[in-house]
Amino acid sequence: MGCVLTSGLLEQQSGIRVSIIGIIFGIAAAFFYALYSIFSRVATDKKYHTYTVIFYSVLMASIALLPFADFPAIGSFVAAQPVANIGFILLHSLFTSVLPYILITLALLHAEAGKVSILASGGEPIAAAIFGIIFYSEVPSVLMTIGLVVVIAALTLLCYEKKPSGPADHGGPAGPGVSGKSTEPAELSEPGESGGPA
Fold first, then answer.
1. Structural domain of residue 123, as residue ranges?
2. Is residue 63 part of a domain?
3. Angle, to 10 degrees, between the axis of helix 50-65 and the axis of helix 99-108?
4. Whole-number CA gyration radius for the chain
5. Does the residue 39 lie in any domain?
6. Is the N or C terminus of the chain more exposed, i.e. has fewer CB atoms within 10 Å?
7. Which of 140, 160, 161 is nearest to 2 (CA)?
8. Residue 53 domain-assigned (yes or no)
9. CA dihedral 88, 90, 95, 99 (to 10 degrees)
């Protein structure tokens, strides 16, 4: 609900258009993104270094995307202003691809894969709204602001962990039965049962 409000979907004046292909690709993207978190956690548990996991992930993604790259457009873009545009491409790759993978892989070392995926997905609309305000002077509507609050509150509750109960909750170290000794009074033996003189 928070993500829907933050996206501004409910405030569109022209109505909501549903794209079946877009929904399918969105679900597929979420599925494979979750697989990345799971496989990265498996790799780090097997003592592979974080940067090794990231290197092969980015390398395989680059190879898979090569057939879809528009090299003539990239060449003309670089030729227009070689130094500035090459710097832009490098910074764009660093901040949108390399750093996110580094941070999410490091997060997997300290949290469960499910929580990391939810935090990363929930943080995207928050970051988009904040960057829109800073760089494009966008003013969030009331519904968008409510959505941001809902998302932040949900992520905060997700990260909240109850502290384990201490010994005092179970009677403490001095409680009955802790030392292993019975607190029941010893029964007195009848004369003659112990084998002694009657």
1. 2-164
2. yes
3. 140
4. 30
5. yes
6. C
7. 140
8. yes
9. -170
Q: Give 174's contacts (C-beta < 8 A, 6+ positions apart).
A: none
Kindly give the confidence (pLDDT) of every residue in the chain, 198 residues in length, as a single tens digit, with 9 standing for 90 and above: 777 776 666 666 656 677 889 889 988 988 888 888 888 888 888 888 888 888 888 888 889 889 998 999 999 999 999 999 999 999 998 888 888 888 888 887 887 777 777 777 777 778 888 888 888 888 878 888 888 888 888 878 877 766 655 555 454 444 444 444 444 444 544 444 444 444
> In the structure encoding, which two tokens stand for residue 133, read together?
């305000």
Cα–Cα distance measured from residue 172 to residue 176, given in angstroms and rounded to the nearest whole number? 9
Sign of CA dihedral 26, 28, 30, 36: negative
Q: Residue 56 falls within a domain, yes or no?
A: yes
Domain count, the chain: 1
- Tracing tokens 């997997």 back to the chain, one arrives at 108
Residue type, 132: G
Q: How would you class 184 by CB atoms within 10 Å of its CB: exposed for 0-12, middle for 13-18, buried for 19 or more?
A: exposed
Unique residue bearing structure tokens 């996206």:
7
Q: What is the DSSP letter of 16?
A: -
